[in-house]
Amino acid sequence: MQKIETEAAFREQIAQEQLTIAVFKTTWCVDCHYIEPFMPDIEQQYAGRVSFVELDRDDLPDLCSELNILGIPSFIAFRKGQEIVRFVNKLRKSREEIEQFADRALQVAEALPN
Questions:
Q1: The pLDDT of residue 98
Q2: Are the C-beta atoms of residues 62 and 8 closer than 8 Å to each other?
Q3: Range of the domain at 80
Q4: Is the alpha carbon torsion for 20, 67, 91, 106 positive or negative?
Q5: What is the CATH classification number for the domain harbouring 9?
Q6: What is the pLDDT of residues 75-89, one digit of tens each?
Q7: Distance between CA atoms of 74 and 91, rounded to whole angstroms?
């Protein structure tokens, strides 16, 4: 997963036509480490339809404050610079929940006017 380290790189990434799912994590978050083994498979499953990017909440506190990122890991889908749907709570996320979120994000993105 591509790691985004600056706010400018984040804004450039989410401005794209293709759906971007930003995954907000930290190094100390146990639940963030829990998803690491299966995230590459999920990325492969959605290859060509979704770009997944990773951001460390501790490295970009102003951006995370702006986006109201409180629980981690948090997932937010963007298209053309606009947030379209989010999966944010303080609970551990399962592979199935992340896949359901990605499917929902794709459905919402496809329903939006070009």
A1: 96
A2: no
A3: 2-111
A4: negative
A5: 3.40.30.10
A6: 999 999 999 999 987
A7: 10
Domain count, the chain: 1
5-13's contacts with Cβ under 8 Å and 24+ in sequence apart are: 5/56, 5/59, 5/60, 6/60, 7/60, 7/62, 7/63, 10/53, 10/55, 10/60, 10/63, 11/81, 13/51, 13/53
4-44 pLDDT, tens per residue? 999 999 999 999 999 999 999 999 999 999 999 999 999 99
The residue to which tokens 């060509």 are assigned: 48
What is the predicted pLDDT for the residue at 102?
A: 97
